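pls design
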C-alpha cells in the first residue's frame, strides 16, 4: 500500500525551518569572520539532515540546493575554503531560497508543487565549493514564489504550519480526561468544606472540654486524610490519561524512514527489505520528533555500509535481498528500540586503520583494541571508514549526532553489537516519556541535585578505611569490581553555602556513595545526604541555559526548592578527565623488550585500573572482557603473564587457566588470579588448575601486584 507523504510534509516544514535557522545563524557569523569550527560543524550537520529529509519526501528542488550548500560547508569544515563575507552572503541567499520554497510548500497545504531548483543558484554554489567564488548577485533568490490558484487565508496558513505540532486524540481519551477532571473538582470541593469546618470550629473551641476537642480534631484529621488520599490518586490518574494523549504509535516514525531505506537501496543498486516489528507501541510525541534524525542516520549507514550488493551477498551464501529490522518493545518503564541489519558487520581492520590515520590511537597498540573499543570509535565526530566521499558516505557525519541525541538529549543509552559477516545491531533504550521520570535527589554541601534513577545502580556506605588508593586514585571493591570514587563537591566544584551546615561527610567515618553507571562503566559518587526518590515532573531549562550539557532540567522539591537534574553521561566524562592519577609517577616510555601482560576481567573499571597500574611500571598491556576472548587473544599473541578474574561470562577464570595450561606455549607462563572470591577452597581450586598466584581483591595492593609479577617473571 502506497504511503501518503502529505501527512509528513507539514512535519518536515517545521523541522526544516529549525535546521535552516542553524545554518542562517552560522552564516551571519561567517560573514563577520567570527565563525568557529564547532559552528561550521553544526551548520554542516543541519544541512546534511535537511537534504536527507527533502529527498525522502521527494522535494527535489530543496534537496538539490541543500546538497550544493552542504558541499560548501564540507569544504569549510575540512579547511579547504576560508570563511569570508562573500561566502557568508551566498550561504544566506541559499537559505532565503529554501525558506521561500518551504513557504510555498506550506501554502499548498503539503502538496508537492515546487518548481525545479534554480539553476543559477546551484551553479554559483557549486563554483563556490570548488573555490571559484564569483561576484554574489541577488538575482538567484528574487524569483517570485509561485502562488497557488487560490491563496489561503492567514488562519488557514497558520493552521497548516502548526499542524505538525498537534496530535489527534481519540474521543474516549478526552472523555476519560473530562471524567477525571470532574472527580478532581468534586474532591477540591470536599477539601474546601473541610477548611470551612476548621474555620467554624475556631469560635467553639473555648466552649469545649478536652475530650470534645480531641474528638473533633480526630474526626477532622481522618476526613482530611481520606480526601487527600483520594485527590492524590486522582492527580496521578489525571497525569496518566494526559500522558497517553501525547502518545503516538512508533509507526509514525518508522513509516517514512522505511520508505527512505527502499529508495536509498535502489539508488545504490541494492535490494533491501525493511521489516517493522512493534510499530503499534506508543511513545511520547516528543521522543518521536527527536528520534527522527538519529534513526535516519542509522538506517542510512545500514544501507550504505552494512548491506552489500546482491552479487556480493549471494557469493557469501546469503539471500540477494538484505533485511533491516526495526523492533520496538516496552522494557519496564522504558522503550527498547533495535535497529538490526544482516549485512557485512563492522569492518574492524578498517576502523583500526582509520583510527591510526586520524591520530586517535597509536599504531603500536591499535591491534590490541578490543571489539568494544572499536565500536566506540565509530561514534567519534568526523569518523568514517568510507574510501570515497559521496553524497552518503565519507563525510564523517551521523553517528556522533546519534550518540549525542540519544544519550545526552533523551537520557537514554546506546549500544552496538556486530558480527563480522553477519550484521550489526544498534540497541537504544529510552525512557517512555521525558516529562516525568524517577529522580533520586541528594544534597551536597547544602546544594540540591537529582539523578535519573535509571542510571543509579545502588547506594552504599563505606568507611574511610575501606577506600583504597589504586593506580593513584581512590576506589572501592564492590561485587567483584574496582569502582573509582569521586567526591560530588570536587566534581561539581561547589562550596558550602554561607550560613549552611558543614558537610556530613567530614563529621563521620561512614561515607555515603551513589553507584552510577552507563555503558562505559561505573563510578561511586561521594555525597552528603540522600533526600528522596520518586516520580517527578521535569521542567525544561530556560532557553539561555539549554546549551550547557551538565544539567538536563529542573524539578521542585517538597519545600519548593529548585533541584538541578544532572546528566550522568556528562558527569562520568568529567570524572574521567579529573581522574588522572594524583600521586603516581610519570608514566615511563614502554621499552621494546618490556613484559607484555594480558588482563582478563569482565568489569571495564577493573580492567582499566589494573592496566593503569601495570603501564605506570612500564608493562605492555592487552585487555580482554571474558575468558573466551582472553583465550583467543592468548592464542594469537604470546604474552609474558596473564592476570584473570574468576567470575566472568562465557568462560570463567578457572576454565581459562586450565585451557591455557593445556597450550604448549603457556605451560610455564605466570598466571595470576585476581578475584573477590577469598575462600580457601577457591584458592585451592586456583592452584589445582595451574595458577601461580591468587590475589583477593579485598587484599589488593598495587605494590603487592607489581612485586608478585616481578618475582614470577624474573
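designed seq:
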Amino acid at each position: 500500500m502506497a504511503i501518503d507523504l502529505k501527512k509528513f510534509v507539514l512535519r518536515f516544514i517545521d523541522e526544516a525551518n529549525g535546521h535552516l535557522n542553524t545554518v542562517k545563524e552560522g552564516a551571519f557569523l561567517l560573514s563577520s569572520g567570527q565563525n568557529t569550527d564547532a559552528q561550521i560543524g553544526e551548520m554542516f550537520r543541519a544541512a546534511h539532515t535537511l537534504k536527507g529529509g527533502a529527498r525522502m519526501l521527494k522535494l527535489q528542488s530543496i534537496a538539490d540546493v541543500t546538497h550544493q550548500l552542504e558541499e560548501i560547508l564540507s569544504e569549510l569544515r575540512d579547511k579547504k575554503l576560508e570563511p569570508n563575507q562573500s561566502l557568508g552572503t551566498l550561504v544566506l541567499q541559499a537559505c532565503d531560497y529554501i525558506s521561500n520554497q518551504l513557504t510555498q510548500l506550506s501554502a499548498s497545504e503539503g502538496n508537492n508543487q515546487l518548481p525545479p531548483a534554480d539553476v543559477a543558484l546551484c551553479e554559483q554554489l557549486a563554483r563556490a565549493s570548488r573555490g571559484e567564488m564569483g561576484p554574489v548577485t541577488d538575482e538567484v533568490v528574487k524569483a517570485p514564489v509561485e502562488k497557488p490558484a487560490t491563496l489561503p487565508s492567514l488562519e488557514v496558513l497558520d493552521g497548516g504550519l502548526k499542524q505538525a505540532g498537534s496530535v489527534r486524540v481519540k474521543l474516549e481519551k478526552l472523555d476519560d480526561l473530562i471524567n477525571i477532571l470532574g472527580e478532581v473538582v468534586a474532591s477540591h470541593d470536599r477539601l474546601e468544606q473541610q477548611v470551612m469546618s476548621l474555620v467554624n470550629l475556631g469560635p467553639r473551641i473555648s466552649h469545649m472540654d478536652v475530650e470534645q476537642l480531641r474528638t473533633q480534631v480526630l474526626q477532622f484529621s481522618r476526613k482530611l486524610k481520606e480526601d487527600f488520599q483520594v485527590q492524590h490518586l486522582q492527580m496521578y490518574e489525571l497525569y496518566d490519561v494526559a500522558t497517553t494523549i501525547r502518545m503516538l504509535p512508533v509507526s509514525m516514525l518508522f513509516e517514512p524512514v522505511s520508505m527512505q531505506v527502499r529508495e536509498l537501496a535502489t539508488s545504490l543498486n541494492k535490494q533491501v527489505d525493511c521489516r517493522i516489528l512493534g510499530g503499534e507501541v506508543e511513545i511520547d510525541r516528543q521522543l518521536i520528533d527527536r528520534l527522527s534524525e538519529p534513526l535516519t542516520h542509522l538506517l542510512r549507514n545500514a544501507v550504505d555500509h552494512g548491506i552489500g550488493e546482491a552479487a556480493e551477498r549471494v557469493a557469501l551464501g546469503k539471500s540477494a535481498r538484505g533485511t533491516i529490522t526495526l523492533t520496538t518493545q516496552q522494557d519496564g518503564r522504558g522503550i527498547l528500540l533495535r535497529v538490526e541489519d544482516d549485512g557485512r558487520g563492522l569492518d574492524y581492520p578498517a576502523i583500526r586503520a582509520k583510527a591510526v590515520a586520524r591520530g586517535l590511537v597509536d599504531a603500536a597498540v591499535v591491534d590490541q583494541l578490543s571489539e568494544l573499543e572499536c565500536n566506540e570509535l565509530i561514534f567519534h565526530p568526523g569518523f568514517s571508514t568510507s574510501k570515497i566521499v559521496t553524497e552518503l558516505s565519507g563525510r564523517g557525519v551521523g553517528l556522533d549526532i546519534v550518540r549525542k541525541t540519544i544519550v545526552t538529549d533523551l537520557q537514554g543509552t546506546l549500544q552496538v553489537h556486530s558480527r563480522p559477516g553477519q550484521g550489526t545491531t544498534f540497541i537504544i533504550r529510552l525512557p517512555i516519556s521525558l516529562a516525568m521520570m524517577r529522580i533520586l535527589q541528594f544534597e551536597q554541601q547544602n546544594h540540591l541535585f537529582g539523578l535519573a534513577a535509571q542510571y543509579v545502580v545502588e547506594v552504599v556506605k563505606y568507611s574511610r578505611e575501606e577506600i583504597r588508593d589504586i593506580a593513584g586514585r581512590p576506589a572501592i571493591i564492590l561485587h567483584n569490581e574496582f569502582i573509582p570514587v569521586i567526591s560530588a563537591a570536587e566534581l561539581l566544584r561547589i562550596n558550602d553555602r554561607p550560613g549552611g551546615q558543614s558537610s556530613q561527610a567530614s563529621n563521620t567515618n561512614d561515607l555515603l556513595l551513589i553507584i552510577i553507571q552507563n555503558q562505559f562503566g561505573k563510578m561511586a559518587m561521594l555525597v552528603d545526604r540522600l533526600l528522596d526518590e520518586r516520580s517527578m515532573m521535569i521542567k525544561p531549562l530556560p532557553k539561555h541555559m539549554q546549551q550547557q550539557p551538565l544539567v538536563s532540567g529542573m524539578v521542585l522539591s517538597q519545600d519548593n526548592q529548585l533541584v538541578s537534574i544532572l546528566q550522568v553521561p556528562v558527569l562520568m566524562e568529567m570524572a574521567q578527565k579529573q581522574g588522572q592519577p594524583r600521586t603516581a609517577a610519570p608514566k615511563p616510555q614502554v621499552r621494546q623488550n618490556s613484559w607484555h601482560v594480558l588482563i582478563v576481567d569482565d568489569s571495564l573499571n577493573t580492567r582499566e585500573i589494573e592496566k593503569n597500574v601495570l603501564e605506570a611500571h612500564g608493562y605492555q598491556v592487552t585487555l580482554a572482557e571474558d575468558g573466551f576472548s582472553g583465550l583467543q587473544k592468548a592464542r594469537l599473541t604470546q604474552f609474558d603473564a596473564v592476570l584473570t578474574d574468576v567470575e566472568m561470562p562465557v568462560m570463567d577464570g578457572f576454565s581459562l587457566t586450565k585451557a591455557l595450561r593445556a597450550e604448549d606455549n603457556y605451560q610455564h607462563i605466570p598466571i595470576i588470579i585476581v578475584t573477590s572470591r577469598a575462600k580457601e577452597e577457591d584458592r585451592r581450586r586456583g592452584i589445582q588448575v595451574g595458577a601461580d598466584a591468587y590475589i583477593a581483591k579485598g587484599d589488593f595492593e598495587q605494590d603487592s601486584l607489581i612485586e608478585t609479577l616481578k618475582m614470577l617473571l624474573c
